[in-house]
């Protein structure tokens, strides 16, 4: 584990509340603080409904935090984001979701799913260059170019999660939030995906937030 003195991600006093009515508010996340260092896998553990997935979504700004501070690479990303910060977050922070089927567009082929972020963020200006990168991403996650022309429903759960990981890697982020990425998979497939995440994290010096309710899985993959 490559660790420096400065955390890549620093969460201080994060609160995420959801008003349901005038009299009732769900306090999904209530005053949580932690740091994640470069090249580290940090395990966030809790039972179902404890707010751990909401924490991950708040960090990557799928939700606007109610209170608290989120520092990423020294920048405060907890308030209203500037255009520059939004662009930085789209490339530097990604998420791998729990349900690999629900998180992939069923109407798009794998090639289109992986090419979309590359073209939308202008990493490549033509499809030929982007297609070459898609092949490379598939190889990283243990798939190949024969899978490019298939739709998500044609894959097993483990293969779909590999595609989700490939999509998260497309923009070469520094940080990935993994939200229960193996809980929907068979036990035999879980080990394959965990080993893949460990290998990718080591080779790319990625920082991972690994969210799970399974202590055995967290013990295996997390540094802390």
Average pLDDT over all residues: 92
- Radius of gyration (CA) equals 18 Å
Secondary-structure element string = EEEHEEHEHHHEHEH
Uncertain segments: none
Question: DSSP strand (E) fraction?
Answer: 15-25%
Structural class: alpha/beta
- The gross shape turns out to be globular
Strand count:
8
Side-by-side strand order of the widest sheet: 2-1-4-5
Report helical residue fraction.
Answer: 25-40%
Number of DSSP helical runs: 7
Distance between the first and last residues' Cα = 11 Å
Q: Biggest sheet, in brief?
A: 4 strands, antiparallel
How does this model look, in words?
By secondary structure, the protein is α/β, with parallel strands linked by helices. Helix content is 36%, strand content 23%. It has seven helices and eight strands; from the N terminus they run βββαββαβαααβαβα. It has helices at 52-59, 83-92, 110-120, 127-140, 157-169, 187-204, 215-221, and strands spanning 9-19, 25-36, 41-45, 67-72, 75-76, 93-96, 175-179, 207-212. It has a four-stranded antiparallel β-sheet with strand order 2-1-4-5, with helices on one face. A hairpin with a 2-residue loop joins β4 and β5 (75-76). α3 (110-120) packs across α4, α4 (127-140) packs across α5 (157-169) and α5 (157-169) runs parallel beside α6.
């Amino acid at each position: 584990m490559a660790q420096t003195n400065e955390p890549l991600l620093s969460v201080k006093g994060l609160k995420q509340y959801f008003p349901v009515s005038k009299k009732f508010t769900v306090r999904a996340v209530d005053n949580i603080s932690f740091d994640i260092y470069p090249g580290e896998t940090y395990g966030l553990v809790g039972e179902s409904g404890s707010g751990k997935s909401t924490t991950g979504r708040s960090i990557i700004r799928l939700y606007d935090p109610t209170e608290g501070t989120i520092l990423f690479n020294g920048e405060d990303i907890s308030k209203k984001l500037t255009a520059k910060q939004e662009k930085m977050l789209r490339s530097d922070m990604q998420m791998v979701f729990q349900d690999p089927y629900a998180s992939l567009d069923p109407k798009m082929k794998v090639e289109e799913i992986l090419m979309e972020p590359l073209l939308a963020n202008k990493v490549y200006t033509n499809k030929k260059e982007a297609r070459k990168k898609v092949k490379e991403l598939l190889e990283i996650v243990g798939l190949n170019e024969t899978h490019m022309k298939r739709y998500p429903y044609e894959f097993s759960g483990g293969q779909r999660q590999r595609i989700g990981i490939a999509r998260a890697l497309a923009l070469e982020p520094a940080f990935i939030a993994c939200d229960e990425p193996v809980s929907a998979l068979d036990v035999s497939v879980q080990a394959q995906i965990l080993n893949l995440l460990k290998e990718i994290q080591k080779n790319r010096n990625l920082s991972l937030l690994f969210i799970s309710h399974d202590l055995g899985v967290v013990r295996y993959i997390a540094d802390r």
